[in-house]
Amino acid sequence: MADPIARLERVSYWYPGAATPSLRDVSLHIGPGLTLVAGSSGGGKSTLLRLFDGLVPQFHGGRISGRADVAGLDPMRAPIPRLATRVGHVFQDVETQSVYGTVEREVAFGLENLGVPRSQMHDRVDETLTAMGIEGLRRRRLATLSGGERQLVQLAAVLVLRPELVALDEPTSQLDPDGAAAVMAACAKLAAAGKAVVLAEHRLESLLARADRLLIVESGEATGPEEPRDIAALLTNPPSVVEFGAALGWDPLPMSVEEARAHVRELPHWLSDRAAASPPYSWDVEAALEVRGLAVGPGREAILDGIDMAVGAGEVVALVGPNGSGKTTLLRTLGGLLAPLGGTVRRPDGRTAYLPQNPGALLHLPTVRAEVDLTLRRTGSTEDAESILSACGLLGLAERYPRDLSSGERQRAAIAVTLAGSPALALLDEPTRGMDLSARRALGAAVRSLSARGSAVVIATHDVDLVAEVADRVIVLGDGRAVELGPPERACAAGSAFATQIGSLFPGGPVTVAGALPALEDHNTRSPGGAPGRSPGRPADAAEVAS
Amino acid sequence: MTRARAVALGLAALTLGALASLAPAAPAVPMCAAAGAHHAAVVVEHGDGSVATRCVAFDASDVTGEQLLTQSGIAWSGQTFGGFGVAVCALDGEPARYLDCPGKDNYWAVFVSSGGGAWRLSNVGISSLTLRDGDAEGFRYVPAAGDPVAPASPAGVCPARVAATSGAASAVPPRVTASPGSLGSPSIEGSPSPDSTPSLSPSPSQTLARPSETPPTSTERIAVVAATATVAGPAGSDPSRTPPPSGPDTGLLAASVAGGGLAGLALLRLVVRRRRLR
Amino acid sequence: MSVPRVLSDRDDRSPALAPRAWLIWSIAAVTIALLTNNPVYRVLVALAAVNVLVAWLPPERNRKPLALGLAAAAILAALVNVLASHTGADVLFRLPVWVPLAGGPITLESLAYGGAMGMGLVAALLAVAPLSLVLEPHDVVDAMPNALERTGIAVATSMNLVSGIGRTFVSVRDAQQMRGWRPRGLRSWNEVLVPVVLTAIEDSVLLAEAMEARGFGAGRRTSYSMSSWTRWDAVVALSALAGALLFIGARVAGVAVDWYPYPTLALPPIQPLLVLGCLALALPAFRRD
């Protein structure tokens, strides 16, 4: 590695009032290039990033030990404004990062703070906007930009200070795939230009192959930075190809679909044939949620029209599509929170559960269990809290104050709170935002448990892995219409806009790791089994399609 | 640019003219020469019907109602309100004690009689009233709601427009003696002593409650709304004169034209804009 | 009178009038509205402000909630005075005395005075409306004198946060409703308000962290904007100031600026010069673009 830009020696840090340290004895070097930081939520990734620009310990307080050097300054002692000229920090939520309302002024904010003379300010802002390729957005108001564009603006706002190290804390978790791709491309470009880019993310699919180094932070302990290939096996949230490769014992582990293809060529070709032969399923249970000719819109103008949809009891339907295509509006209309502009919605008898975006906002009672109990009481359910708590993996956290939990844990708590009590219809809006793999697995388990109890579930999401894992059908929204794509085997297959890694790996075959592995075992043991990716005896599908 | 410049010049001229005209003008009324040459009557009618009257002599051509009342020697206490002037809280011992001024249930209504004419209710405080020779100032303790009834006629309180000798203050002997109960002001009995030279400054025998910062509390029982509570402005603003009689007419005209113009302009813009959007 | 060019909603809407001129205008207008309780002047100030707003407000949003809110505030202010004050010569009707606070005669004078107060509130609100509805957040920062710049930033960022709170409120209320919550009396709103407040606090800490990470609080700040102070800006600012000074001068000189409708309702005293002072506030409505 070239000269490291940041050096940490045996750093331990406790947040104020915390009994356990968030960073334990961390020693590492960060050099130029793209360093990917991976780890479970609550494991210390954000804390580490905050250390680089001095927010920890100076802004947050607490106790710290050890030594650190970032671009020649000591982040524990140097004033944060000085550190701001060496380290840039981009946060997860665009809304709570913006100070001004327009792009130009937002980018210039940092320069104003540091007292840069006006003539210089204008030049530097021009230079940065051009370098990032967003010169065209200069006069725009931030509220009118897409999420991806806004994060690019925030990145420009830190780059204008000419830092040597740029830390980005889950910048793409709230973006749709296009926005995420734009931000990641910008990061790669920066890294190639010689800056040290430290990027913390949960969704590593497209990043592992591009990263120069991988750093794993779990429970406050850091492993790395090393070549991604060397420590990818230690990831608790590996991308599907890595998981698949690890399960099959491939060495070296594939970092991308392309690398995995080399291994796949060695596998028998019948795997793909087998998947293609699986019969299409059909649904013959009566529709729980029925939608005819629905037109929805946030105001008086319809952004979606002519929607026909039916979801049966126990069926899981995924709504996919870019931000702004109307997913949230459609969900709110399905739930009865918004009046339809035309057409009808018939909901099943019983409760409708609705999980909004940013669900952690609604928690305020002293314990997670109290919140779940409140839902059960309010909805008149006779169940106890244990079933939903265990389905979401929250039994150990049930007595904690929900707002003190890490973001992934809080999200799981919100899901448990919202879905408790076996609702007849469950509507989930972007449930996996900012979730690590274990939380996503918990969500999948909760959804499956709901579906097993006969709830109709509609999930609006970008997360193709979730779709592949739990959905029975996929509907894509765009251009004011809804188009049915069928089961995940078709919707997430190779070549689709929503293809999963496994799906890309096996055209016409399974789309999840869970779907691909049993088929292999099955073949190896030569015993009969069901169609890959699904347990046998699934209900048939009678849904209608609109266009 | 030319429009801007024209408007700027016009405004500058108007501002200068306005500020000049607001400067207190010298009184145009010729001064009477002799001391004690002018008289005005003060009539006080209590809630029970008893009446106290005084005739007050003064040198200058006009006095304020406040000065007149002070000179009359009748004990009184008052409170100053912003642009209103001084309001009478207690007069001649009634009410003996008070919390609100003017009182919630009963208050002292002020009347003015010009040159012996009929009583006219005053809408301003006594410090804002101007009285001349032959005028009268009347007070009656009336219930808060409903039309205030005028006090007893001022006729005969003062000698009718004869050249008064200096210092002579003829007065109907007061039927009611001021009780010592009213807020520490010394009681006054009988007619004022002939050798007290009427002066134009308030004698120290008064207690004037002048809480200058107090916003009008009782009459205008305002809740949280900030607007007028802080309006008090420079307290005890010097009472100089009532607005010139021609003021309200031209002022009303100006206000109506201005208001109508602004309202019309706003509506016009709204209509044009809506049409443009369609 | 030309119809203003309709600005695109996507772009920076900094108005063609300098932010500092707007600030001076607003302060002058509020001063006049609060310095006098004469309803005629207050109505004139309100009308002038309405003209300015109609000329400058972007047309796309629905202004009815704003208008309704103002009307509600004015009526409430008037009602409070009417019910609490029982003086005045013209009694309209009488409420039974046992009604607390409001019992007793309701008079025309207290109604009129309450109306004047309501008018004052409306005029003051309209006078400060452009600072939030017409100016961009960074304009508010630019308008502040150097000493108050950080205050300006606090104001600007709070404007951003407030819109976030509105969104959070809708989201939390929807979610709680689907969980079975019903708005039933004041206490029940806790379930919506407490989460919103907690989220707002967390968001403001996140924003503070982001601002500090970009060097906020370091010391001397410079300003990105170039002050484009034109002659028209000077005219607007000076005329507004002149109007305010007229009122202050009138008060100092003792010219009747106020209006007391007690004990009998009488027409308020109106000085033509002060009317002119109020009219001067309508100048910004004549846009130069």
Q: How far apart, in Å, are the first and last alpha carbons of chain B?
A: 33 Å
> In terms of per-residue confidence, which ranges of chain B show pLDDT below 50 for 5 or more consecutive residues?
19-34, 162-247
Helix content of chain B: 10-25%
Low-pLDDT residue spans of chain C: 1-6
Shape of chain B: elongated
- Write down the overall mean pLDDT of chain B: 65
Give the overall average pLDDT of chain C: 85
Q: Which architecture of the largest domain in chain B does the CATH hierarchy give at level 2? A: Beta Complex
Shape, principal axes of CA atoms of chain C: flat
Give the SSE map.
The complex is a heterotrimer of chains A (547), B (278) and C (289).
Chain A: E1 6-14, E2 23-30, E3 33-38, H1 45-52, H2 55-59, E4 63-70, H3 80-84, E5 87-90, H4 103-113, H5 118-132, H6 147-159, E6 165-169, H7 177-192, E7 196-200, E8 213-218, E9 221-226, H8 228-231, H9 240-248, H10 257-264, H11 270-276, E10 287-296, E11 304-312, E12 316-320, H12 327-335, E13 342-346, E14 352-355, H13 368-378, H14 385-391, H15 407-419, E15 425-429, H16 437-452, E16 456-460, H17 464-470, E17 473-478, E18 481-486, H18 488-491, H19 501-505, H20 513-525
Parallel strand pairs in A: 3-7, 3-8, 5-6, 6-7, 12-16, 12-17, 14-15, 15-16
Antiparallel strand pairs in A: 1-2, 1-4, 8-9, 10-11, 10-13, 17-18
Chain B: H1 2-22, E1 38-45, E2 51-58, E3 62-64, H2 65-72, E4 76-81, E5 85-91, E6 106-113, E7 120-121, E8 130-132, E9 136-143, H3 247-277
Parallel strand pairs in B: 1-9
Antiparallel strand pairs in B: 1-2, 3-8, 4-5, 6-7, 6-9
Chain C: H1 19-35, H2 39-56, H3 64-84, E1 91-95, E2 104-107, H4 108-133, H5 137-143, H6 149-178, H7 185-188, H8 190-213, H9 231-253, H10 272-279
Helix pairs in contact in C: 1-2, 1-4, 1-5, 1-9, 2-4, 2-10, 3-4, 5-6, 6-8, 9-10
Fold and architecture overview:
The complex is a heterotrimer of chains A (547), B (278) and C (289). Chain A has 547 residues and is an alpha/beta fold. Chain A has helices at residues 45-52, 55-59, 80-84, 103-113, 118-132, 147-159, 177-192, 228-231, 240-248, 257-264, 270-276, 327-335, 368-378, 385-391, 407-419, 437-452, 464-470, 488-491, 501-505, 513-525; strands at residues 6-14, 23-30, 33-38, 63-70, 87-90, 165-169, 196-200, 213-218, 221-226, 287-296, 304-312, 316-320, 342-346, 352-355, 425-429, 456-460, 473-478, 481-486. Among the domains of chain A are: 6-237, 3-Layer(aba) Sandwich (Rossmann fold); 358-422, no CATH class. Helices cover 34% and strands 20% of the residues of chain A. Chain A is globular and about 70 Å long. Chain B is an alpha+beta fold. Chain B folds into two domains: 38-232, Ferric Hydroxamate Uptake Protein, Chain A, domain 1, CATH 2.170.130.30; 244-278. Chain B has helices at 2-22, 65-72, 247-277, and strands at residues 38-45, 51-58, 62-64, 76-81, 85-91, 106-113, 120-121, 130-132, 136-143. In chain B, the strands form three sheets. In chain B, strands 2-1-9-6-7 form a five-stranded mixed beta sheet, with helices on one face. In chain B, strands 3-8 form a two-stranded antiparallel sheet. A two-stranded antiparallel ribbon of chain B has the order 4-5. In chain B, a hairpin with a 5-residue loop joins strand 1 (38-45) and strand 2. Residues 19-34 and 162-247 of chain B have low confidence and may be disordered. By secondary structure, chain C is mainly α. Helix content of chain C is 62%, strand content 3%. Chain C is built from ten helices and two strands. Chain C has a two-stranded antiparallel ribbon. The N and C termini of chain C lie close together (11 Å).
